[in-house]
Amino acid sequence: xxxxxxxxxxxxxxxxxxxxxxxxxxxxxxxxxxxxxxxxxxxxxxxxxxxxxxxxxxxxxxxxxxxxxxxxxxxxxxxxxxxxxxxxxxxxxxxxxxxxxxxxxxxxxxxxxxxxxxxxxxxxxxxxxxxxxxxxxxxxxxxxxxxxxxxxxxxxxxxxxxxxxxxxxxxxxxxxxxxxxxxxxxxxxxxxxxxxxxxxxxxxxxxxxxxxxxxxxxxxxxxxxxxxxxxxxxxxxxxxxxxxxxxxxxxxxxxxxxxxxxxxxxxxxxxxxxxxxxxxxxxxxxxxxxxxxxxxxxxxxxxxxxxxxxxxxxxxxxxxxxxxxxxxxxxxxxxxxxxxxxxxxxxxxxxxxxxxxxxxxxxxxxxxxxxxxxxxxxxxxxxxxxxxxxxxxxxxxxxxxxxxxxxxxxxxxxxxxxxxxxxxxxxxxxxxxxxxxxxxxxxxxxxxxxxxxxxxxxxxxxxxxxxxxxxxxxxxxxxxxxxxxxxxxxxxxxxxxxxxxxxxxxxxxxxxxxxxxxxxxxxxxxxxxxxxxxxxxxxxxxxxxxxxxxxxxxxxxxxxxxxxxxxxxxxxxxxxxxx
Length: 579
Ligand code: FES
Hints:
Elements: E1 6-10, E2 24-27, E3 35-40, H1 41-47, E4 49-54, E5 57-64, E6 67-72, E7 86-88, E8 97-99, E9 106-108, E10 114-116, E11 126-129, E12 132-136, H2 142-158, H3 165-178, H4 183-195, H5 204-219, H6 224-241, H7 259-267, H8 271-283, H9 288-299, H10 308-323, H11 328-341, H12 354-360, H13 387-395, H14 401-417, H15 437-456, H16 461-475, H17 494-506, H18 513-530, H19 541-555, H20 564-576
Antiparallel strand pairs: 1-2, 1-4, 3-12, 4-5, 5-6, 7-8, 8-9, 9-10, 11-12
The structure holds FE2/S2 (inorganic) cluster (FES).
FE2/S2 (inorganic) cluster binds at residues 75, 77-78, 80, 100, 102-103, 105.
């Protein structure tokens, strides 16, 4: 149809209130300058509702009181025809309140506001001249449409927990991209919207964003559906992590940057001093690459936050590299805040053997190119060891950090494969036995982060490797070596397994970002360590097979996320001893 051609459909007005439109019946091309004549005014007044079509546009016309309104006939919720809606008295005292009868969304046709529902309704400027209804059908320029979509995305971002706001985010992102908006710009915006509403700094949203965008490169090229799904997951996770949170402003001070001062400030839990160092570094033109060494040192200074600190350093760097300098400052501020607040588990009795193990570690790294003496470390060397024994065993292989890393990673995979998941059904255990799948996935994702950081900063190997040993010792009581794991073994090629697993990740079905995020992080870590050129376990047949099977088991397991009886029992025990 030529752009100026208009078709009209109409039905007789109903006896009361609602107006209805039936099948199209008239084709009536007419053109005005800028505006297009789309209907006879008298006819519309008699019918009260008409639908006109122009190109791909389907427009509902409403005669209400002294006015005529025109809007997209497709409801911005799910596209049902608004011409089938109900007009009732609105803000002007006449029928300008339009209700879509499918899900009761309500639109003020006078102001354009969506009163119930979320997405904005497209309205068209109306002019009444020469007994005709004229509409300005010109579309706003792409920049204006992209801006409007970003505004809609922000609105959905702020109300993520409300019914169907996730889908609203998806629609606004689709509109943004349809208007040629750069989807990564939407992610950058989400980083800015969220970063100072994260009370304790970096959250899993950052870590999973980096991984989702990696998966997007791999699986969503040329696939608009997967692309949109991934972008919604990324932005939705940021929205969720700062939902209903106020702002927690970052202190504004700036100090001359000294790497050692940054590490010391984080160690002293002095957020203001640590952030002043970051701002000083940025003012001096430095970026994440220059700050990674002290940040990694601070992250591995303690067995911290169940491995999150090291993981967050790696993923923050990856996300900044991908999104560019526009997010360097917000992501660095959040990261340093999280490192400052991280809890330090090596200070509790369970992990106190870490300090002496570090002191006993040989100071001098092996000369470059030297061959370690003795047999190489193996994953099975660490099976069943408690924390002190695992630390001592790791120390025996100090001369071979890369080999030790492979062995520890392999052991973490073996443990995850053999996790005694029956523990999650036990309600009679004390709080220190509260273990779940994420205890085991973290041993793997932390090991992956240790490998990445220590390859670039080899002086951190002792800390990283010994903390991996802490994970193994901590999880050792909760594995069942006799578990029948044959069903989880991967028969075919790893590439086919990864393809299938990635497809399932794209449609993960998990309502909680924390779960989908851990599935994704673990998947990306397993893939990196087993399938890529240079992955630690690429050539380690047994541990590699264990890690693949472990992920296979994880992805096929329903993870218990709520422990009502266990929590109640532990609370009763706890309170009984409070006096
Ligand atoms: S389609 Fe209109 S409210 Fe759902």
